[in-house]
Amino acid sequence: MEKKLFKIHADTMNVPEDSVSAESSPKSIPAWDSLKHMRLLLSVEEAFGIAFLDDEIVEIDDTQSLLKNLQGRGVM
């Protein structure tokens, strides 16, 4: 599932898949702006059949926090 998430992430940010890791953040991916962040979350919701709550969206600010959220849901 992690690979699926990284593929979604790379496609959304328009970067090579091998440039995305659990340590990725807006600091390491310059294309990661607020609009792409929302597109990423929407794509993840669609791909995994989930819906993020408003407070979760605020807490998800890098790939590690996104992974942690998905793991907490039992998705990953």
Write the layout of secondary structure elements.
Elements: H1 2-13, H2 34-48, H3 54-59, H4 63-72
Strand coverage percent: under 5%
Low-pLDDT parts are none
Q: Output the radius of gyration.
A: 11 Å
Q: Specify the overall morphology.
A: globular
Helix/strand structural class: mainly alpha
**Annotated CATH architecture:** Orthogonal Bundle
The CATH class name reads Mainly Alpha
Helicity range: 55-70%
User: Major beta sheet, specifics?
Assistant: none
In brief, what are we looking at here?
The protein is mainly α and 76 residues long. It has 4 helices and no strands.
Notes on the structure:
The structure is a single chain. The protein is mainly alpha-helical and 76 residues long. It has a single domain (2-72), classed as Non-ribosomal Peptide Synthetase Peptidyl Carrier Protein, Chain A (Orthogonal Bundle), CATH 1.10.1200.10. Helices cover 57% and strands 0% of the residues. The protein has 4 helices and no strands. It has helices at residues 2-13, 34-48, 54-59, 63-72. α1 runs antiparallel to α2 (34-48). The chain is globular, with a radius of gyration of 11 Å. The protein starts with a helix and ends with a helix. The mean pLDDT is 95.
